[in-house]
Amino acid sequence: MVCLGNICRSPMAEGIFRKHAENSGLRAIIDSCGTSDYHVGQSPDYRAIKTLNQHGIDISGLAARQFTVEDFDLFDHIFVMDASNLMNVVALVRNEEDRKKVSLLLDEVYPGENRSVPDPYFGGIDGFNEVYNLIDKAAENYLKKLK
């Protein structure tokens, strides 16, 4: 799960996907990171933590990290939150195999529409609730495909 700073959307996606995977009995390694180094080592935004806590998901122990080329070796799929994240991650691909692993998260909800998960950072708690709902639906759809 990749966003810009790894304090809002991507840690939310990590927590939501983990919960769905656990509920489905799926064993998976799910992680999140950012394309920038702005917040490396920081906890998720308090509004992201609060929103997920309301849904029984605890992300308070996560710490932001930056995306690296090694992530292509560690993960089978790399979901990005928006076109800018997509461009930044694709700029690091080494081959076609790496490229095939990368997609926009909301393609799981709106195939082929290239929609972005909105960045809630500069807004209020309602934006975090909207992001929760979008990511939750994407997680549900993706995990159905894996079954």
CATH topology: Rossmann fold
Strand order of the largest sheet: 1-2
Shape field? globular
Gyration radius, in Å: 14 Å
Mean of the pLDDT scores? 97
Number of helices: 6
Provide a quick synopsis of the model:
The chain is mainly α and 147 residues long.
Describe the overall structure.
By secondary structure, this protein is mainly alpha-helical. It has one domain (2-146): Rossmann fold (3-Layer(aba) Sandwich), CATH 3.40.50.2300. The protein has 6 helices and 4 strands, in the order βαβααβααβα. The strands form 2 sheets. Strands 1-2 form a two-stranded parallel ribbon. A two-stranded parallel ribbon has the order 3-4. Strand 1, helix 1 and strand 2 (33-34) form a beta-alpha-beta unit. The protein is globular and about 40 Å long.
Spell out the key features of this protein:
Rossmann fold, single chain, 147 residues, two-stranded parallel ribbon, 43% helix, mainly alpha
Q: Topology, please?
A:
Elements: E1 2-3, H1 9-24, E2 33-34, H2 46-53, H3 71-74, E3 78-80, H4 83-90, H5 96-100, E4 102-104, H6 125-146
Parallel strand pairs: 1-2, 3-4
Helix pairs in contact: 1-6, 2-6
